[in-house]
Amino acid sequence: xxxxxxxxxxxxxxxxxxxxxxxxxxxxxxxxxxxxxxxxxxxxxxxxxxxxxxxxxxxxxxxxxxxxxxxxxxxxxxxxxxxxxxxxxxxxxxxxxxxxxxxxxxxxxxxxxxxxxxxxxxxxxxxxxxxxxxxxxxxxxxxxxxxxxxxxxxxxxxxxxxxxxxxx
Length: 168
Description:
By secondary structure, this protein is mainly alpha-helical. The chain contains 5 helices and 2 strands, in the order ααααββα.
């Protein structure tokens, strides 16, 4: 089933705009993976790099989990693909499948959406241990948009290399 990618709103309050843009970027990553086999999704961008479309999906599951669950909600949860806290481990998708990667990513996106919806405002804060700083939900949402936008650029190039498909 093709990914439904709804453009972000052009009018709305700050929170509505941020939700819309973040969901647009999430849908763009899924859209870049539409119609590919597990083998194609695992195809590395440029060996020796382990970067692949499936690796990007796995990485974004870790990013969602870390920023929303660990930082904003203060949950004591580890990473999905690394017991040692190695964020790079998610990129290595050589044995991964679409079903496991997308299931983990979609679970984390749903947790993120719930945490954001339940937050009183974008001024809610959480502690980022890696930065040793308190950060706002606003910063987290902006950071996630930045992460998705950057990695969607990678996904664009990887997808073109897999089957020639291009598009915004």
